[in-house]
Amino acid sequence: MLVYLIRRLAQSILVLLVMAVLVFVGIFAVGNPVDVLINPEADLQEQQATIERLGLDLPLHEQLFVFMGNAVKGDFGRSFLHGEPAMEIILTRLPATMELAVVALAISLVFGVLFGLWAGLKPYAFSGKTIMAGSILGFSLPNFWQGLMLILIFAVFLGWLPAGGRGETTEFLGMRVSFLTADGWSHILLPALNLAIFKMCLVIRLARAGTREAALQDYVKFARAKGLSPRRIVLVHILKNIMIPVVTVVGLELGSMIAFAVVTETVFAWPGIGKLLIDSIVNLDRPVVVAYLVLTVFMFVIINLTVDLIYSVLDPRVRLAEVKA
Amino acid sequence: MSEQTAPLEPIASDLSPEAGFAETPWRRFAVEFASSRLAMVGLLLFLGIALAAIFAPWIVPQDPYDLAQLDIMDGQLPPGSASLAGYTYLLGTDDQGRDMLSAIIYGLRISLLVGSVSVVIALLVGGSLGLLAAYFGGAVDSVIMRVVDIQLSFPAILVALILLAIFGNGVDKVIIALVIVQWAYYARTVRGTALVERRKEYMEAASCLALSHRRIVFRHLLPNCLPPLIVVATVQIAQAIALEATLSFLGVGVPITEPSLGLLIANGFEYMMSGRYWISFFPGVALVLAIISINLVGDQLRDILNPRLKS
User: Fold this and answer.
1) Residue A153: which of A163, A143, A144, A138 has the closest Cα?
2) DSSP string, B231-294
3) Is the ipTM of this complex over 0.85?
4) Chain B partners of A149 at a C-beta cutoff of 8 Å?
5) Which domains does chain A have, with CATH numbers?
């Protein structure tokens, strides 16, 4: 186990390092931020001073060295655009993205399991088939267009919900959050739904397959023979057993939800880190792009590491195969 | 049907008297494919979309990127409006008076081009690497598959965003990014199949004949690994088209001069708030139809080509 742990940890650190170098060198090759940042009317001396202040006059490998040294300390430089430390800007935006992802996860889990249970109990009924057809459609719709259509229906035609923005926020544990006010809820509903639909379809399929399998098991027959009410059989006995794969998959998908939030945040003008990334790419705001990517890669490396370690505890075969290879 | 064709094709009926025609693998494949009506609808839909995209310049009512043909007075007309020149804008016009139907057909052209070219290149790259990994094993295998594992642990959209943040806009750059995102799927698929095939007797026979590595890999191993690869490639075309549209919508994909469906949808976004939905709506419908038709074909291919699903 220790060998496996060390190998896996070393691999994670290597991935993180390689990605950081790739991202930094790659972003370095894109456009010249000096053109965007410096007032074109400034004279040559002022321009030179700005370039030196930003450290852009050093050769690439020295810039990389400085960058890596600072990155370890969590310092990714100041945003060219906002003048504040890049990591700080991202961290102030992070709660908005997290809130969106958590609400979306809750929606996909609750409705996905409910619809999946229903479709699994009545696989040949019209309602069950409709749910499955709907889940196939949910898989096929491009996420951004689906968001536009939600806006078109609920904001433009019906006028029930606002089309974008975050609405009223309140202070909660030192973060600005939306979920404590009615206005905040009305703003978060559409973007969260948009982010949730794809995962919900995934959960529906898992829950349906699990239910169909569980319904034939002996413990369900026994519960029925014991005279338990159908409601209790479904909500207690079957539900508990289908939740294992559902929770595993959904836990794994939390990371990809944060990645996909880029699309939803752009469509709904939700002020999270995804929208920040797109704005920063367009404005050539290097420090913010690099900081976002390093943070996200870090997050994924941690998630993947955790998942692998948990699997290796649950299933010794994983560990053995890895050490042998 | 067999009675009608039998007298016309006596040679064929000799070979296979019951079926009425020679049962070649291709014919059997076609018959099996046609057994699903949904798959046939998907195939016809996809062929229609592809033909429209290929022959776009000859079938569109208006060249959407020839400024001389555009009339700003026709801007933002709803679907079914008549133009100043007299013909009908079936799907309305955008802010510059561009016929949306023509713009969509041209957009499909770019979307399908990006999707199919990237899939073909990724298929070649990923397929070859997967074959090499399985055939040679050892260090080659572990290096290639480790890279595959690491890449697949990140969501495709994140990898594509990183790459395009580095490369910048452009059709060629989107294609490169999509290839890098996709190759790992093919490598993994081919390797899995090839590992099973490698142990079969025909491979042993080929080695005993002292054939060259190249001949064994490409003439013996590769053809037997194709079926799952074809299925993955079909589904990946739809994925690639959707991903390209997403990236273009976000403004990091194709440039404004070569608007794909994603960019058309992005352009219509600002007008949607005031109820002029058609500028975003119809390109999206075209995109969804393209994706669904490809997925329907892919589903049926998977059912036919996967021997485990056959009873």
Assistant:
1) A163
2) HHHHHHHHHHHHHHHHHHHTTSSS-TTS--HHHHHHHHHHHHTTT-THHHHHHHHHHHHHHHHH
3) no
4) 281, 284
5) 89-272 (1.10.3720.10)
* pLDDT per residue of chain B (311 residues) written in tens, 0 to 9: 344 444 444 444 444 444 455 677 788 888 878 887 888 888 898 898 888 888 877 877 777 776 666 666 666 666 766 666 666 666 677 776 677 788 888 888 888 999 999 999 999 999 989 988 888 888 888 888 888 888 887 788 888 888 887 777 788 888 999 999 899 999 988 888 888 888 888 888 888 888 888 888 888 888 888 888 888 888 888 889 999 988 888 888 888 777 888 888 888 787 877 777 777 888 888 888 898 888 888 888 887 877 655 54
List the single residue in A255, A263, A300 with the smallest CB-CB distance to B246.
Answer: A263
Instruction: Say yes or no for a CB contact (<8 Å) between A325 and B288.
Output: no
- Reference B53, options B279, B241, B250, B266; nearest CA is B241
CB within 8 Å: A142 and B158 = no
Residues of B with CB below 8 A from A306's CB?
none
**Mutation site, A145, A197, A273, interface B, largest B CB count within 10 A:** A145
Residues of B in contact with A148 (CB under 8 A): 265, 269, 272, 280, 284
Helices A126-140 and A86-121 pack at an angle, to 10 degrees, of 150
Q: Which of A116, A252, A172, A152 is nearest to B154 (CA)?
A: A252
Number of H helices, E strands in chain B: 14, 2
| Interface contacts A/B by beta carbons within 8 Å | 100
Cα-based distances in Å from A16 to A27, A68, A72:
16, 11, 11
> Which among B161, B166, B281 has the least Cβ separation from residue A262?
B161
Nearest to A30 among B161, B166, B249 (CB): B166
